[in-house]
């Protein structure tokens, strides 16, 4: 189907527009597409009338190209061909195509009246589709506005949700950062406490203050300090010593830690000082070694980096305090040990040299610990010509034991002036000690030799038994039942024992430090002493009893350190087998 209109004025344009609308409606063009067609055609016709001349409108139906979308369906083509004048000026034809869902074989458009009233009525009828479209558009605008409001509210909700998520993410990140910081601080605190505990154990393990001073830099360098200098006041004495930083002198005078650097350190409990003239380019932390009376010295440290962490500085101050306690204890221990050992040796008597009897004694203090002051030996003459030889051991150690040992030694000598057998002397010592020091005990063994008596009388109170070597080289232990320890809260009479003592015989009196070992007990040690005493020939004992005493000590003490005093007293009757 093809329709053609010639358009040269407004009336012809209106008729063509109305005919196009009726033809599109007849072919089932949707109202929206129909309105678009008539609106765009009307605009094009107005343009044509403005340019003048005669234009031609052609409407035809056909099938859409296969290359186009919806190929094979019916469409309506509208073409406005320009006037010869416009075509000569290069004006191209105007074209538009709309779908025809309800295509018909042919339709009559009918003539459009020339009467103006009828033409207006026809125009109004042709614009019904436009009105319908406008109503549809109004409805769509309402829906679009509604959806726009919903979209705006949704957008606001999404923005709020994003803000909440961002705040939650920020809070979570802050919580994670706080947790990491807390975990790091806890780990650092645990590391410092572990180091402090381990270092304290190392420092307090020694009773030698020189060893403690040597170990302190080894513990701190390089993790907590680049260098460590320990200044002990009593080491310099009156001799000129090395120069010390002014901050160290201030720390010694005030008893407070000092920090010397170009900038304040901000360390808790530490006073700031100007940089040291001895080291102006590096910070110094000077910490006194405090005691109850006055500082023992000052520890001066330089940082492993540019400066110290405040928590590390607090730990260093605490470690220095513990080191000071360890050094103070070590110095007091050494002082008391020296006093006790000096007193012990001063009270050990010079052995007599009676006719026919040779004596040799050895006293060795303990090699470690304050286990000195309780072991003693003595030998002296009685008025009747007899010789008393005694070895004893006071319980406890240190100054108190040394003083008690001296009192027992003096009391025994006083009692022996009046005579009396070894058992009687021990009984009197038991009573004396019980009344003098009820909480202190002692053990002792006494042997009495007399030039007119071929026997030796002895008695023991809680003491290891004497070991006797006869002239024929046989050795036996004098293990007759001894009395109880001296000083225990019991009344006792300690018995005497006698044994033949031919010339060439040797009696060994000793303390438990010579024979007792913690892992093996005392009996194996006594057996070893008997073997050592039996290994000498009679000539050796007659010729060099002092060397024989050394020969006994070497094998007896070579297997372990001495954790107790050692006393050995050899009594040898001169003569041959």
- Summing up helix and strand content along with how strands pair, one would put the structural category as alpha+beta
Number of helices: 15
Radius of gyration: 62 Å
The tally of beta strands, per DSSP, is 19
The largest beta-sheet arranges its strands as: 5-9-8-6-7
Q: What proportion strand?
A: 15-25%
Main beta-sheet annotation: 5 strands, mixed
The chain-level mean pLDDT equals 84
Shape: rod-shaped
Unreliable sequence segments: 236-240
First-to-last CA distance = 166 Å
Helical content stands at: 40-55%
Task: Give the helix/strand layout.
Layout lengths: L1 E6 L2 H17 L4 H21 L3 E9 L10 E8 L2 H5 L5 E6 L16 H11 L1 H77 L4 H12 L6 E6 H4 L9 H9 L3 E3 L10 E3 L10 E6 L7 E6 L7 H38 L9 E8 L10 E7 L5 E8 L4 H19 L4 H15 L5 E8 L5 E7 L5 E3 L5 E3 L19 E4 L5 E5 L1 H4 L7 H12 L3 H6 L1 H13 L8 E8 L4
Parallel strand pairs: 6-7
Antiparallel strand pairs: 1-2, 2-3, 3-4, 5-9, 6-8, 8-9, 10-19, 11-12, 12-13, 13-14, 14-17, 15-16, 15-18, 18-19
Quick description:
The protein has 577 residues and is an alpha+beta fold.
Overview of the molecule:
The chain has 577 residues and is an alpha+beta fold. Helix content is 46%, strand content 20%. The strands form four sheets. It has a five-stranded mixed beta sheet, sandwiched between helices. A five-stranded antiparallel beta sheet has the order 10-19-18-15-16. It has a five-stranded antiparallel beta sheet with strand order 11-12-13-14-17, covered by helices on one side. Strand 15 and strand 16 form a beta hairpin. Helix 1 crosses helix 4, helix 5 packs antiparallel against helix 6 and helix 13 packs antiparallel against helix 15 (545-557). Mean pLDDT is 84; it is low at 236-240.
């Amino acid at each position: 189907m093809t329709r053609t209109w010639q358009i040269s004025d407004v009336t012809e344009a209106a008729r063509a527009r109305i005919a196009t609308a009726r033809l599109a409606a007849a072919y089932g063009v949707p109202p929206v597409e129909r309105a678009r067609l008539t609106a765009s055609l009307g605009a094009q016709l107005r343009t044509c009338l403005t340019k003048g001349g005669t234009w031609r409108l052609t409407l035809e139906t056909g099938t859409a190209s296969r290359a186009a979308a919806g190929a094979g369906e019916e469409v309506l083509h509208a073409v406005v061909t320009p006037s010869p004048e416009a075509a000569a000026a290069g004006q191209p034809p105007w074209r538009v195509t709309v779908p025809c869902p309800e295509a018909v074989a042919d339709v009559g458009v009918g003539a459009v009246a020339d009467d103006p009233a009828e033409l207006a009525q026809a125009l109004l009828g042709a614009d019904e589709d436009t009105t319908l479209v406008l109503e549809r558009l109004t409805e769509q605008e309402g829906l679009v506005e509604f959806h726009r409001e919903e979209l705006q509210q949704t957008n606001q909700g999404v923005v709020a949700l994003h803000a909440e998520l961002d705040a939650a993410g920020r809070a979570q990140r802050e919580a994670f950062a706080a947790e990491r910081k807390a975990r790091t601080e806890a780990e650092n605190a645990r590391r410092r406490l572990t180091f402090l505990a381990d270092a304290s154990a190392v420092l307090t393990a020694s009773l030698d203050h020189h060893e403690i001073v040597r170990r302190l830099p080894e513990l701190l360098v390089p993790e907590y300090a680049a260098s460590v200098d320990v200044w002990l006041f009593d080491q310099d004495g009156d001799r000129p010593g090395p120069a010390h930083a002014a901050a160290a002198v201030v720390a010694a005078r005030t008893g407070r830690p000092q920090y010397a650097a170009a900038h304040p350190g901000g360390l808790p409990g530490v006073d700031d000082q100007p940089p040291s003239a001895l080291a102006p380019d590096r910070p110094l932390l000077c910490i006194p070694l405090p005691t109850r009376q006055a500082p023992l010295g000052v520890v001066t440290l330089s940082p492993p980096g540019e400066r110290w962490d405040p928590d590390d500085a607090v730990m260093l101050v605490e470690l220095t305090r513990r080191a000071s306690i360890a050094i103070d204890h070590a110095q007091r221990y050494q002082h008391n040990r020296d006093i006790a050992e000096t007193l012990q040796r001063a009270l050990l008597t010079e052995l007599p040299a009676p006719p026919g009897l040779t004596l040799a004694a050895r006293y060795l203090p303990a090699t470690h610990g304050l286990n000195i002051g309780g072991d003693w030996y003595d030998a002296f003459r009685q008025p009747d010509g007899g010789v008393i030889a005694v070895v004893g051991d006071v319980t406890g150690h240190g100054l108190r034991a040394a003083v008690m040992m001296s009192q027992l030694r003096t009391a025994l000598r006083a009692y022996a002036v009046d005579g009396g057998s070894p058992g009687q002397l021990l009984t009197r010592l038991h009573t004396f000690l019980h009344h003098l020091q009820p909480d202190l005990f002692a053990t002792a063994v006494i042997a009495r030799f007399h030039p007119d008596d071929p026997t030796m009388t002895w008695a023991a109170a809680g003491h290891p038994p004497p070991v006797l070597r006869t002239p024929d080289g046989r050795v036996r232990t004098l293990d007759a039942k001894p009395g109880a320890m001296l000083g225990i809260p019991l009344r006792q009479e300690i018995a005497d024992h006698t044994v033949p003592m031919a010339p060439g015989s040797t009696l060994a009196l000793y303390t438990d430090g010579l024979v007792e070992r913690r892992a093996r007990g005392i009996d194996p040690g006594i057996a070893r002493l008997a073997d050592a005493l039996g290994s000498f020939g009679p000539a050796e004992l007659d010729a060099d009893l002092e060397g024989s005493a050394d020969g006994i000590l070497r094998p007896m003490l070579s297997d372990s350190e001495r954790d107790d005093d050692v006393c050995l007293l050899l009594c040898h009757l001169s003569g041959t087998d």
